[in-house]
Amino acid sequence: MAMKPEIRERYPKKIQLAVGQPWSLRLRAGDVAESRPATVRLMEASDKIAITEFARSLPEEDLLFLRTDITDPATIEEWIRNLENDTTITLLAELDGALSAYASVHLNPLRWTRRVGEIRINVAPRWRGGGLGKELCAEILALAQTLGLRKLSAQMVADQKGARATFERIGFRVEALLADWVEDRKGQPHDLLLMAYDLRGSGRRAAA
Predict the structure, then answer these.
(1) Domain spans of the chain?
(2) Structural contact between residues 110 and 117, judged by C-beta atoms closer than 8 angstroms
(3) Architecture field, domain 5-150
C-alpha cells in the first residue's frame, strides 16, 4: 500500500500543546497554561540514530512491555525497511529540537486484514501529561481515514492501566483479553489486551 501524496503533503506540521508548570503535571486549579509548539513530521531512514537514542533513553519499565525491542539495531533496521515498503507510517514529534515521541500505524497487506491497522505510540516521560500523546493519536486516526482503513487496533498488556484509560478516552473499546499470551523482557507472562477503534463509526461519534 503506497503512501498517498496527501499524507506527505500534510507533514511537517506544527501543533500547540497547553500545559501547566511543571510540564509533566496536568493543569490544576489556579495554574496558568503555557502554550508549547511541537513539530510533527514523517519518520525517514535518516532518523535511525535519533530513534535509537530515544528508545535507549526510555525507563526500563517502559521497555519491559514493548512488543519489539526498539533498543536493538536490528529492530530499528526492520522498522526502516517497513517505512520504505510503506507497511508502516511513523510520525515523530519534536519539542525543543529533540525527539519527544513517536506514533505509528502498521499495515498488513494480506487481503483479509488490509483494512485493519495497528497503532503504536510512545511519549518520553518528560512530555507526558500535556496532551502530546492525544494529539499524535488524533494524527494517526486521520492517517487511517486517508488510507481507507476500517479499524485500528491497539495491543498492550493488561497491567498497562494508564495506556488502556488513554485509548478508552479516545474511543477505543476492548475486543479481547488473552490470558498469559505474551512475555515481557524478563520472561514473565502477562495477559494481552486487544482494543479497537471503528473508523466507520467515527463520523457518527463526532456528530454526536
Answers:
(1) 5-150
(2) no
(3) 3-Layer(aba) Sandwich (3.40)
Distance CA 132, CA 85 (A): 27
List the chain pLDDT tens, one digit each, 208 residues.
567 899 999 999 999 886 544 444 444 555 555 678 899 999 999 999 999 999 999 998 888 888 899 999 999 999 999 999 999 999 999 998 899 999 999 998 777 778 999 999 999 998 887 889 989 999 999 999 999 999 999 999 998 888 899 899 999 999 999 999 988 888 899 999 999 999 987 544 443 3
- The model carries a pTM of 0.87
- With b for 16 or more beta-carbon neighbours within 10 A and e for fewer, the 144-174 pattern comes to beebebebbbbbbbbebeebbebbeebbbee
